[in-house]
Amino acid sequence: MAKKKKYVYFFGDGKAEGSADMKDLLGGKGANIAEMTNLGIPVPAGFTITTEVCTYFQKTGGKYPPGLKKDVAAALKKVEKVMGAKFGDAKNPLLVSVRSGARISMPGMMDTVLNIGLNDKTIQGLIEKTQNERFAYDAYRRFVNMYGDVVLGVRPRTEKEHDPFEEILEKKKKARGVTLDTELTAEDLKELVAEFKALIKKRLGRPFPEDPMEQLWGGIGAVFASWNIPRAVSYRQIHGIPEEWGTAVNVQAMVFGNMGEDSATGVAFTRDPATGENYFYGEYLTNAQGEDVVAGIRTPQPINRAKKVPKGMKTLEDEMPKIYKQLATIRKKLEKHYRDMQDIEFTIQQGRLWMLQTRTGKRTAAAAVKIAVDMVKERLITKKEAVMRVEPEQIDQLLHPMLDPKASKKLLTKGLPASPGAAVGQVVFTAEEAEAWAKDGKKVILVRVETSPDDIRGMNAAEGILTTRGGMTSHAAVVARGMGKCCVAGAGDMAVNYKKGFFKVGKVTVKQGDWISMDGSKGEVYLGQVPKVVPQLTGEFATFMKWVDEFRTLGVRTNADTPHDAGVARAFGAEGIGLCRTEHMFFEGKRIDAVREMILAEDVAGRKKALAKILPMQREDFVGIFKAMDGLPVTIRTLDPPLHEFLPHTDKEIRELAKDMGVKPSVLKAKVASLAEANPMLGHRGCRLGIAYPEITEMQARAIFEAACKVAKMGKRVHPEVMIPLVGHVNELKLQKEIVVKTAEEVMKAQGVKIKYLVGTMIELPRAALTADQIASEAQFFSFGTNDLTQTTFGLSRDDAGKFLPFYVAEGILPHDPFVTIDEQGVGKLVEMGVTLGRQTRPDLKVGICGEHGGDPASVRFCHKVGLNYVSCSPYRVPIARLAAAQAALADQPAAKPKKKASPAKKKTAKKKSK
Ligand code: PEP
Ligand code: MG
After folding, report:
1. Is the dihedral of CA 469, 473, 479, 481 positive or negative?
2. Over the stretch 443-475, which tens digit does the pLDDT of each residue have?
3. For a tag on the chain, would you pick the N or C end, based on fewer CB atoms within 10 A?
4. What is the mean pLDDT of residues 438-443?
């Protein structure tokens, strides 16, 4: 008989059946609770029901595998034994929490039920045990509220409706003439329990379940079901978490942080998650439950005095020094064990510390880099591990502009610096508005009293998030940091009026649609639009990127058309230009007139006349670029876009140009009309232009080599690489190459300078990839133009796909947008084929990529895998590509240390992808 599958894993009393490397099965929370238990850290006993049960549950429409009920009952018995209490016992009741826990943390996205096991009988036992009637009824009313909402679905039925439990609570407070929940008496809370239960009965037509076992299974089912609630699905989509992973369910003995002044609850990070500084960072509230800290209803206190503490505020270190010391020891133990920054949750119940959770802490990009570098210095991790620890996409945050410190600003208000960066946008008050406005291309800042997991899409669409309530670990702060969004939280001076769509700070009113700017590192909010500037990179960033380059084998170049962009990219570590789109230079200032004149000329003489005007301008552009890239290769592409992009379209433009050219407007208009194409992207563009008008290629080659000679004479090293676009047949390249080589030799002879150069081609048509062996007989290098190659392989217009491609992605017809991440199976196959065939003919063929994919981490991994020499991307993506390339190279190597890592799930996926 096959061995029965194990679905339930117990933990408690220093021993756990699971461990940290079982995240796939036990979820992150369950695996880490097991690990903590095994480390001898005090954790309330409990058990984890595996993610496999979730999969079963989803597949069978809410059923459980046979035998699960028995296993749960057995595990519950063990919990009872360890905790010295009994589930459902009227004298000595055990209460449990039921929480979700996927492989990767999805903060607040799924459901939780606390205090399960309370009913009209067990409440007496709880009162007896704690000698605290008020506490017991507070727990009870919270339980009925939570259970009613999460398990029984009693919640607002429309967007406009208030929370029905909240309404009853508010009414009660009003009737008692109090403002805080804590001011309600035991009797008030007892009444609330009855009123809540009456509400449930009225809504559902059946009473609130009193049977603890029924409550437990209701909770377990609700948590499994919450894997598929809209906000969890949205979160999974945003963060690329596969649906089939499922969540585990953790059932754990309750401990209470709200049992009086010797009780507390808190959240802490073993290092500062915003800056990465190595000090113990955390917040807590005395006499409170975990939700109170995260929900941001009360402003929490710092756990210690490592940073300035607001006047009059106490810290945990002051209030409970012994417990703080114990916590600080656990912090050290956890960091040493996990070798990564941890995000921990703790509860102090009547002077006794309990750890509820540890997980790899989410952090800003700046913190990720600092922590990785510091931990190498502290000998906690290796350089390789440090490089694997920072997500390439995250680096983006560091390179993004911040508010210009020199700009004049009008400070509106201050809150907590919850997530760094800058945001400038128009104020909106709901997540739906944020999404809708962003869809219209507007930049918005989402302003809320506090955020909830339901706001996730709106937060993602917004430039930044501003809340009036909540601390550094509030939902808004945690989620914003994870998303790399600027966030200012707890700006308490603000009074928000959702209904009327404005907020007020003192006498200033800011309405929906008004512009504000935020500095998430300072927690400051300004009126109006403050300009942004590029940030200065830290020493740690430089160290980190140095390590990145030690491991990277793939080259990283940049796509740049101006000396300025070339300079920026070089500062970011670009090792050359992989694509200079010369046509971008044609639009500047007066040049467009000369270009139009060239296109519309009737004959070669007319074209040459116009080209002669363009030549000196183009030459000077190249001089600037060659100077900026002294010593590095510069790939310059000859004219590529469809001619219609340059043509005058309005009557006014045609009249003006006709005047310049000395022709009748009607003649010019007819010429413009004759050049119109039904399908310009597949029309007269790319090398087809240079073939029809060789004088264009000749002029461009002349400009390139005259500039190169000039710069070489200045003592700089120039390495021009001339690239012919949209080649489909080797003969096209042959013809264009002849022109380039002839011109280059002529110029060099005339200038008396010898320069090494290459002539190559873009591979951006399927036919080019399929005949790459033939093309390589002429091409000295290839550069894959994967924008066009994607367009032509899919037969999918780059310019029109936006209308329907998002639907394809949302529906899972395509796994991702192929214009963003390379389609490895189709387009990628052509790339692989092109590389192999090309190198068959020319073994030393240099091959790169210059489509947008060159800056996309997943595509960079692919480029590494298929043996490209370099990727080329926009200047700001250069460091991202460098890191992605290093990680791809490291993923090829055997693991540095077989030791357990803090977040193996993520790393495993990265490795798999690049295999
Ligand atoms: C490409 O097609 O990938 C490319 C880089 O060229 P462009 O985007 O200019 O067409
Ligand atoms: Mg192209």
Report:
1. positive
2. 999 999 988 777 888 998 999 999 998 766 677
3. N
4. 93
> Within 151-229, where are the H helices?
164-176, 186-204, 212-225
Distance CA 709, CA 742 (A): 15
- Hey, what's the torsion of the CAs at 461, 465, 470, 475, to 10 degrees? 20
- Using alpha carbons, select from 393, 398, 380, 395 the residue that is nearest to residue 338: 380
Q: How many A from CA of 796 to the centre of ligand 1?
A: 14
Among the ranges given (206-210, 360-364, 724-728), the one the predictor scored with the smallest mean pLDDT: 360-364
Residue whose CB lies within 8 A of the most ligand 1 atoms, among 764, 784, 821, for a mutation test? 764
Phi, psi of 441 (to 5 degrees): 85, 10
**CA-nearest residue, atom 6 of ligand 1:** 785
Task: Please report which confidence band the pLDDT of residue 912 belongs to, taking 50, 70 and 90 as the band edges.
Answer: very low
Give yes or no for a contact between 25 and 8, defined as CB atoms under 8 angstroms apart.
no
Residue type, 443: K
Q: What is the reported pLDDT for 887? A: 98
pLDDT tens sequence across 844-898: 999 999 998 999 999 999 999 999 999 999 888 899 999 999 999 999 876 544 3
**Cα gap 113→127, rounded to integer Å:** 21
**Catalytic site includes residue 709:** no
In this structure, the strands spanning 281-286 and 301-302 are antiparallel
Whether pLDDT at 39 is above 90: yes
780 close to 758: Cβ distance less than 8 angstroms: yes
pLDDT band at 906 (very low <50, low <70, confident <90, very high): very low
Which one of the ligands is nearest to 726 CA? 2
Instruction: Decide: 257 and 265 in contact? Cβ < 8 Å.
Output: yes
Active site residue 850: yes
β-pair type (532-533, 402-403)? antiparallel
Task: State which H helix or E strand residue 794 sits in.
Answer: helix 786-794
> Cα–chain-centroid distance for residue 445?
18
Q: Which residues line ligand 1 (CB under 6 A)?
A: 579, 581, 640, 764, 785-788, 850-851
Name the H helices within 40-92. 51-59, 68-83
Furthest-apart CA pair in the chain: how many Å?
104
Summarize the chain as % helix, strand, coil (round to 5). 50, 15, 35
Give the pLDDT band of residue 477 (cuts 50, 70, 90).
Answer: confident
Instruction: Give the β-pairing of 264-269 and 342-349.
Output: antiparallel
Write the DSSP assignment of 795-842 as a string of letters.
Answer: T--TTTGGGTHHHHHHTTSSSS-TTTS--TTTHHHHHHHHHHHHHHH-
Q: Hey, what are 408's tokens?
A: 């004049």
Residue 301 CA, ligand 2 centroid: distance in Å? 56
724 C-alpha to ligand 1 centroid (Å): 12
The three-state secondary structure class of 248 is strand
Contact in structure between 253 and 46 (CB atoms under 8 Å) = yes
Q: At residue 796, what is the residue type?
A: L
Asked if the model's pLDDT at residue 75 lies above 80, the reply is yes
Of the candidates 254, 306, 534, the one whose C-alpha atom is nearest the C-alpha of residue 422 is 534
* Per-residue pLDDT at 588: 67
Spatial separation of the C-alpha atoms in residues 832 and 417, rounded to whole Å: 47
Query: How many helical (H) and strand (E) elements, i.e. helices and strands, does the chain have?
Result: 35, 34
Take residue 388 and report the two structure tokens written for it.
Answer: 């694997």
The residue nearest atom 1 of ligand 1, judged by CA position, is: 785
The residue type found at 730 is V
